[in-house]
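Quick illustration, no need to memorize.
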Amino acid sequence: MSPRPAPDLDVRRDQVIRAARDLAETHGWPALTMRRLADQLAVTQPVLYTAFASRQALIDAIALNGFTDLAAAAEAAGASPLARMRAYLDFAGEHPRVYEAMFSMPSGLVFAVEDTPPPMRRAFSAIRAAFPGADDTRAEVAWSTLHGLATLQAGHRLTANGAQARLDLAHHALTQHQAH
């Protein structure tokens, strides 16, 4: 009997990330254990550890996957700053646990350094394209504003019926002097 071929590691990693994202979005981060994920995928825990060295490595991979999705959503929204802002807030609202992994949970991922991972750079570039400037200050303030709105909305610290008015005001504030 010939040995069973090893599954492609990239395919395995993608399957694990998708299953872990779904589990976290449905049941929260405490429910994401390697044991539960292995059971769900019908594999052993050592199989998971061939794809990710630790639960933290998996969460960081989910965050990077989220940055890729956020960038794609912003880019697909078009060049309009308002459309990109809406895409950002929609992503955060539709994927709250992934958004937590991207910005709130402990992580080894670092922004604004030479070796910032490409998915994080791409997500920031999608914001920078909508809020260009001589340096990245305008884009950083836009990102900070969007992150604040997303975080406060997710925490139910803001009224739901004011979401559009807040978005319009933020858009106006961020674009009124854009030509200067």
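The radius of gyration is 19 Å.
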